[in-house]
Each structure stands twice: as C-alpha cells, then as structure tokens.
Write a structure and sequence with these properties.
Blueprint lengths: L1 H13 L5 E12 L2 E12 L2 E8 L15 E10 L5 E9 L5 E3 L8 E6 L8 E6 L11 E2 L13 E11 L4 E3 L7 E7 L5 E6 L12 E2 L1 H23 L1
Parallel strand pairs: 9-10
Antiparallel strand pairs: 1-2, 1-14, 2-3, 3-10, 4-8, 4-11, 4-12, 5-6, 5-10, 7-8, 12-13
Helix pairs in contact: 1-2
Length: about 240
C-alpha cells in the first residue's frame, strides 16, 4: 500500500497539469490554378503556447504544369481569457541555407506580432504578419521547403516554423470563431497571382479543434500506470 501511495504521489507531481495539443489542417483550397495547404500543431503547457507550422502546399499547379509556391504571410488564432497578457515571443524558421534561425529578432525583416482585440479588425488574439516593403510584391513569406522556384522577393524562409508565446497566465485556444486558427497565403498559383485565407480544421472535415492530452503527458501517465502494474504484480506473485 505504501508503494502504491508513493507512485500515486509521483504521478501527481510529474504529469503536467492542463497540458494539451491540437493538430490543425488547412486546405486544400485553390486559386489561379494552385493549391494551398498547411498544418499547425498547437501545444499549450502552463503559460506557454508553442505552434509548429508547416507549409505543405504542392509545388506544382494542379494540372501538373508550372510552379506553385504559396507563401504564408500571416497566421494566428483567437485566445482567451480577455485579460491575457503577452510577455514574450519568438518565431523561428529555416533560411535559404537551411539554417534554423530566429526571424526578425531586431525588427529588420518586417515581421510583426499583433495582439488584436478590436472585433471590427478581424480575429481577436494573436496574429503574426509580414508587412511588405513599399516597393510591392510578396516578401518574407514562409514557403514549403520542397519548392525550387517561383518564390516572391527575398527574404524567404521555409517551414517547419516554430512560434513560441509566453503569457502571464494559461492561454485558452478559442476555436469557436471562424478562422481560429487561420493561415493566409500569397503568391498562389500561376505567376503567383492568387491568394488564400485558410481556416484551421482539426479532423479534415471542418470544425474547430478540441484539445487532446499532450504527448508527453500521456507518456508519463503510461509509465506511471506500468509502474503501478508492476507493484501489484509483485504483490500477487509473492
């Protein structure tokens, strides 16, 4: 009995409380003869939200000819509660040399994070967006690393990208609103003339995401259950 209580205490203090993850799919949707698709894995552990973003768009037009190179120029999601305060954030992705680098740590690449609270301006919560230079064109987007040509103007970055957000309290991902989460793409289809705004889908058929236990939580819980089973087995073998 003492061993059982000890293992129960270990489980209580080693399994993270409230940690969960949701995998979202975006698309496929098309414009100007090209499809855009993406995936986003959102993990919340304590007051930290980590989003793993992958641009999975096909690299050719859907008729099999020409280059399709949609670039993610904006993405975001609605978060609760309303008094949530962002403490710090980082966005990392691969550069043209395949180095994993922090994007815009000093503001030189024009990537911006918005904490949006005005419902008249679109989605509440967090929006990461590239603000193009005044000379026009699509720049600084997050591309599929398999693309070999057709990107917009430099600087280009490639997924998998990782966004880390640290808050003053535990954030809650709100998927009840349309386009939460969302991904916006430019440079879609023939000659990069198309654009898309894709709504996140956690099951491939529409709808928001329900949180599921974070993998690490399940792993720790599994080890704990195995340990308890071993204790009981020894007890009955004796």
């Amino acid at each position: 009995m003492k061993r059982f209580l000890l293992l129960l205490l270990i489980l209580m203090f080693t399994v993270p409380s409230g940690a969960h993850a949701v995998l979202f799919y975006f698309g496929p949707e098309s414009d100007e003869g090209g499809y855009g698709t993406a995936e986003m894995d959102v993990i919340i552990a304590g007051s930290t939200l980590t989003a793993y973003l992958d641009n999975t768009s096909p690299t050719t037009l859907y008729d099999g000819t020409g280059v399709n190179s949609p670039g993610i120029t904006s993405f975001g999601f609605d978060l609760d509660p309303s008094d949530l305060t962002l403490v710090s954030w980082e966005l990392w992705a691969h550069d043209t040399s395949n180095n994993f680098v922090e994007i815009d740590p000093d503001g030189t690449e024009d990537w911006n994070l918005f904490v949006q609270t005005d419902p008249n301006q679109g989605i509440d919560g967090i929006k990461i967006e590239y603000i193009p230079n005044t000379d026009g064109g699509v720049q600084g987007a997050l591309y599929n690393p398999a693309i070999e040509g057709g990107e917009g103007a430099l600087p280009n970055f490639y997924t998998e990208a990782i966004l880390t957000l640290n808050f003053n309290m535990v954030p809650i991902l709100n998927t009840s609103d349309a386009f939460s989460p969302f991904v916006r793409m430019q440079n879609v289809g023939l000659d990069g003339e198309g654009s898309l705004k894709l709504e996140g889908d956690d099951n491939g058929g529409g709808g928001g995401g329900d949180p599921v236990p974070e993998p690490g939580t399940m792993l720790l819980l599994g080890f704990g259950l195995i340990g308890m089973a071993g204790v009981f087995r020894k007890k009955f073998v004796r």
